[in-house]
Amino acid sequence: MKKKVFVIGAGITGLATTYYLQKEAKDENLPLEVTLLEATDRVGGQMQTVKKDGFVIERGPDSFLVRKESAARLIRDVGLGDELVRNATGQSYVVVGSELHKMPEGSFMGIPTQVGPFITSDLFSWKGKLRAGLDYVLPHEKEAGDQSVGNFFRKRLGDEVVENLIEPLISGIYSGHIDELSLRATFPQFEKVVDNNRSLILGMKDVMPKRKKEKQEQPKKKEGIFYTVKTGLESIAEAIEKHLDEGSVLLNTSVKEIERTTDGYTIQTEDGKIFEADEVVLTVPHHVAANILKGFKRQKELAYAPLGSVATVAMAFDADAVKEDIDGTGFVVSRNSDYTITACTWTHRKWPHTTPEGKILLRCYVGRVNDDAIVDEADETIVETAIRDLNKVMTITKKPDFSIVTRWKKARPQYVVSHHTRLMYVEKELEKNWPNVYLAGSSYYGAGLPDCIDQGEKVVESIIEKMR
């Protein structure tokens, strides 16, 4: 008799989990039947790509880190390896006030690892530079528990470096407030660096990869640290779906509740269908999981993480519409600056394959935690706001050929302080009263594509190991 596993949610986590479960079952000839349930009419979650007039435009994520290998491995497995491409490298900037400032060379997530570029940067006052330099001599006071990312960096580097450089970068990744985000849930490696070295700057210099001296006269061209696929990230979801067992993906199937039974679990859908399951993998957002687990005793901890809303606006222009197109890949905006946009990618430079010859593609981001009213404005208002902000640092002389606004309402989970402690209580409750129910996805242990795939693979490993 086959063991029945149901995966709820067909974003990248659910797709990866289903793909690897079915693959392992075939490779090892295991009696396993895996079904993927998805509430909407498509797979892929936030991986959504628009192809228009020769442009390739991402509505959701646009890339993932090369060094996190699980995403590229999965992409190659499903036949898209030839479509993988790294980003073009170039100067990135920070907007402070009304000026673009070059990101200091050698900085990693805003942490200076090279003294020269930091000292000569016009991003900081001499007072701010001297305060950051205290990191070399300040004692390390080890925290007993978790702390906010902002608290950690302010203690080591001071307010100015945090607000002008670190905060814009980190907020851009998590769409969160630096003084609320959990250090251990977002950047635990930095805490370990200070534990081992006392100084954050000296510790980061030690862990950063050393430059190899080249024998050639010409230095080796710097490679981009991000991957995407030329056909758009949505094509990854489509490729995975084609590799899944026929009939194993049920779209437009929204789960109402999951109830434990003597032999396993009953899954009831909103339209009245009933499925019997031996094991259940929930890859839906945490608040959805909390609502559908009937009688879950740690619902408060599971549903706790706040949700942020953001929007993106992609705008296509003729090349001559932007006067003095800046040589760079984009910028982030300091929270202290009078801007509504939080960042902008010069997509035509960072990802040349996305944009036809003679055209420019800009992608701006709006919305912050506790400051996301702009997300609810009309498309025209968001576009006008973005262009107004862009004109503070560049000159746009024409209206866009077209624009695409995408809203992600209450879609960005915030890993606030003590995030991992709350998950510990949730996992203990699952282990005690909900055996063979698993949680995975962007709400828990990382929101990037590789992080989500890693979580799915970990669940697969647990299920297959028990079957062995």
The strand order across the widest sheet is: 8-7-19-20-21-17-23
Largest sheet: 7 strands, mixed
- Determine the mean pLDDT: 93
Structural class: alpha+beta
Number of strands: 24
Give the topology.
Layout: E1 3-8, H1 12-28, E2 32-37, E3 49-52, E4 55-58, E5 64-65, H2 70-77, E6 84-86, E7 92-96, E8 99-102, E9 107-108, E10 111-112, H3 115-120, H4 126-133, H5 149-157, H6 159-174, H7 183-186, H8 188-197, H9 200-207, E11 226-229, H10 234-243, E12 249-250, E13 255-260, E14 265-269, E15 274-277, E16 279-282, H11 286-292, H12 299-302, E17 307-318, E18 322-323, E19 330-333, E20 341-346, H13 347-350, E21 359-366, H14 379-390, E22 395-396, E23 402-413, H15 419-433, E24 437-439, H16 449-467
Parallel strand pairs: 1-2, 1-16, 2-12, 7-19, 16-24
Antiparallel strand pairs: 3-4, 5-11, 6-11, 7-8, 9-10, 13-14, 14-15, 17-21, 17-23, 18-22, 19-20, 20-21
Write a concise synopsis of the structure shown.
The protein is α+β, with helices and mostly antiparallel strands. It contains 16 helices and 24 strands.
Task: Outline the structure in words.
34% of the residues lie in helices and 24% in strands. The chain is an alpha+beta fold. The chain has a seven-stranded mixed sheet, with helices on both faces. A five-stranded parallel sheet has the order 12-2-1-16-24, covered by helices on one side. The protein is globular and about 70 Å long. The longest helix has 19 residues. Strand 1, helix 1 and strand 2 form a beta-alpha-beta unit. The mean pLDDT is 93. The chain is built from 16 helices and 24 strands.
